Amino acid sequence: MIERVTHCSATCFKVPPSALETRPRQSGQEETFHLRHGEQWMRRLNKDNSGHEELQKAVDWMFLLTVEWFGLPDDLKKHSEQLDYGFKGHSNDELRQIWMSTAVPFCNELQLKIPAHYDEEQKKYNR
C-alpha cells in the first residue's frame, strides 16, 4: 500500500518517492516517543499520594472519553469502506481492545481505579 501512495504522490503531487518512504518509520518513532514519555511521567507522578490523586482524577475524566475515540461499536456502524479497501487495518472494536490491552494493565500497575476489566469468559476487555 505504501508503494501505491508513493506512486500516486510522486505522479499526482510531484512529491519525490523517497520523502514518503520514511514517513511510516518516522511516525512510528514519534508515537513510541510520546507513549514512553507519558508512561514515564505517570510513573513519576504516581510515586506520592498527591500525584496519585491527580492521576486518578485525570483517569476518571479521560478514560471513557478515550475509549470512545475509536468510534462506534462495530455492530452500530453502517459503513465498512475503510476496512473493505484496506485503509484501516482493524475495526473500531478491535482497535478499542488493542488499546485497552495496554491501558488497563498499565493503570492496574499504578493502582488506578478504572471503569474496565478483563473478562476471562469472553476473553476481552469490558467497561
Q: What can you see in these coordinates?
A:
There is one protein chain. This protein is 64% helix and 5% strand. With 127 residues, the chain is mostly helical. It folds into two domains: 34 residues, no CATH class; 81 residues, no CATH class. It has a two-stranded antiparallel sheet with strand order 1-2. The two termini are 35 Å apart.
Helix content: 55-70%
List the helices and strands in order. Answer: HHHHHHEE
Report strand order across the widest sheet. 1-2
Number of strands: 2
The fraction of residues assigned to DSSP E strands is: under 5%
Gyration radius from CA atoms, angstroms: 19 Å
Question: pLDDT below 50 for ≥5 consecutive residues: which ranges?
Answer: 1-15
Major beta sheet summary: 2 strands, antiparallel
Shape, principal axes of CA atoms = globular
Distance between the amino and carboxyl termini: 35 Å
What class do helices, strands and sheet pairing give?
mainly alpha
Oligomeric state of the chains present here: single chain
Mean pLDDT: 82
Question: What is the domain tally?
Answer: 2
Number of helices: 6
